[in-house]
Structure formats: structure tokens, C-alpha cells
Amino acid sequence: MSIDRLQEKIFAMENPSAFGLDPLPEYIPPDIMARHIAEKGETLAAAAAAYEEFGRGLIDALCDIVPAIKIQSAFFEMLGPEGVAAMKRAAQYAREKGLYVIGDVKRGDIGSTAAAYSAAYLGRVQIGSAALAGFDFDCVTINAYLGSDGVRPFIETCKKYDKAVFALVKTSNPSSRELQDLSVGTEKLFETVGRLLESLAADTVGASGYSCVGAVAGATYPEELRLLREKLTGTFFLVPGYGAQGGAAKDVAAAFDRHGGGAIVNSSRGIICAWQKTGRGGRDYQEAARAAALAMKADLLSVLPR
């Protein structure tokens, strides 16, 4: 099972964290961006090449200490076809380096469109006699708020190709309260969504005790995170919001089970932009990212059961 592999990597590396590859032009060390602009001009292709070089450098610096990478597709998509191609190559490189690769695509649709999204990011497309992978992520994020017929096609793809998804349940943004905290009978809407997801994937629980459908639950809402952990015992959590968004280790502790498993915490800007705080103009971006990742690891381990 895909989630079993992720849990095994987390325990083997003693690090329940992922780093988010969320590049923007201003996040790229100036020397890298300038070199690609000199070669390709002030073009989207130059930015895509800079993203790719930056991503590969971060992967090289972190692959032996961090079990997973979360690649945010939006930042690559804003560069058009060149950016999407760079994202695919970054994902392939991360897998070659042994990282568990989460595609943060947050797709949400129903029926045949959901099936197409799941085939694109997790499965295969039949072209004649060949079954070909589009992106081949280990896992992707999806929007579960369209209901079960937006989730089931992804579950079927997960079963067929040994993949996983993390579905939005209680997100870290401030306005999540506007909808996700609405009362539905005796519980909040996000609780109802979480229970639905766990029931839909109940037959996919692996050796780790978790199914192929995980939940995105933000570090910025620690009490809600605690409540979800109590209720969703068969659901693995992806926890954004640590670091730059304000979440701390004490806030994410509630996401983990009594063995210190069941969750992975993501940090994006706190790691990939760590070079902006060293005063060396990005020449040390790999060292800065590695130091930030190790500090995050120590911070998380300090609140987990031993």
C-alpha cells in the first residue's frame, strides 16, 4: 500500500515531515534565475528552467533526511507548458532520489472527469496496446467537497496502481471556517466529510492501519486537528500550515497516533526560502534548506511519543 510505504519511510528516517516545492520567481536564488534569463531571455521557459534547477538542488540536499516532497502544481502551471514539463521532470527526479512524491493538485470533479484526473496524475492512459503514465505521482491532493462521486474514481485508481490521495477536510486558511465549520446536525461539516472519506476507503486499509484516502488537516486549527484524530482512526493526515503559516510543533502533535505515526507535516517556504535569511544571496540555498529541514525534524520529534 502506498500509505504503508510512506509510513515506513517516515519511521525509517525518523522524520515525519515533507518539504513543499512551491517555487515563485522571487524564491529562486538570483544567480540561478539570472543564468537562465541570460540563456533564454525574459521568458517563461527561462523561469521553468530555473524552477527545475532549484528543485533538483533542493532534492539533492534533502533526499537523505526528508521522506517526502509535496510539489505544488499551481506554481509550475503559471509558467504554461514549460512549467508543467518542469514539474513532471522534478517529480521524476524526486522519485529517482527515493522521495515519496505528493502532487499538490487539489483536483475536484465528478464522473468521467474525475476518472480522467486520477488517470492523469496517478494512473495510466491506454494508447493502443500501451498503458502510459502521465505524471505518476505516488499521491495527490483532491477536493472532496463535491461528494463521493468525486472521490470514488480516485479510490479505484489507487487500488489499481497502488497509489493514495489526501482529500481536503479541514484546511489551514482563515476562511475555511466560513464553510467547513458549518453545523451539520450534531457535528461540523469537516467532521462529516472526514467520516465519509473514511467509510469510502474502509476496504483499502493496509498494514499501517491507514487507508488509501488520507485527510488534509491544517496545523493552524489544533483543536479541530485533535478532534479529527480521535474520530478518524483509519485516516492518515497531511498537515500543512507549519512554519510560515503559523503552525508550531505543539499544534501538530495532535495529528499523530499514539505510536507517533499517522501523519506527515509539510513546510514549504520555511525550507525552500531559508536562504533568504542567511545574507548570502542564495549561494547557500542547499545548506540553508538542509539546516531548516533538520531543525523542523528536531522540533517535531520533540513533541512525539518515543
Give the CATH topology: TIM Barrel
| Assigned CATH architecture | Alpha-Beta Barrel
Q: Note the gap between the termini.
A: 25 Å
Shape: globular
- Count of discrete alpha- or pi-helical segments spanning 4 or more residues: 13
- Tell me the name of the CATH class: Alpha Beta
CATH superfamily: Aldolase class I
Radius of gyration: 19 Å
Q: Unreliable runs, pLDDT <50, ≥5 residues?
A: none
Strand order of the largest sheet: 1-2-3-6-7-10-11-12
Share of helical residues: 40-55%
SSE order in H/E notation?
A: HEHHEHHEHEEEHEHEEHEHEHEHH
- The pLDDT mean sits at 96
Structural class: alpha/beta
- Strand tally is 12
How many domains?
1
Oligomer: single chain
Strand content: 15-25%
Sheet with the most strands?
Answer: 8 strands, parallel, barrel
What does this protein look like?
- Helix content is about 45%, strand content about 15%.
- The protein is of the alpha/beta class.
- It has one domain (about 1-300): TIM Barrel, CATH 3.20.20.
- The strands form three sheets. It has an eight-stranded parallel beta barrel with strand order 1-2-3-6-7-10-11-12, surrounded by seven helices.
- The longest helix has 19 residues, at about 45-60.
- The model has no long low-confidence stretch (mean pLDDT about 95).
Keywords:
TIM Barrel, alpha/beta, eight-stranded parallel beta barrel, 17% strand
Q: Summed up, what is this model?
A:
With 306 residues, this protein is of the alpha/beta class. It has one domain (2-301): TIM Barrel (Alpha-Beta Barrel), CATH 3.20.20.
Fold blueprint:
Blueprint: H1 2-13, E1 17-21, H2 30-40, H3 44-62, E2 68-72, H4 73-77, H5 81-96, E3 100-107, H6 111-121, E4 125-127, E5 130-132, E6 139-142, H7 152-161, E7 164-170, H8 177-180, E8 183-184, E9 187-188, H9 189-200, E10 213-217, H10 222-231, E11 237-239, H11 249-252, E12 263-267, H12 269-272, H13 285-301
Parallel strand pairs: 1-2, 1-12, 2-3, 3-6, 6-7, 7-10, 10-11, 11-12
Antiparallel strand pairs: 4-5, 8-9
Helix pairs in contact: 2-3, 3-5, 3-13, 6-7
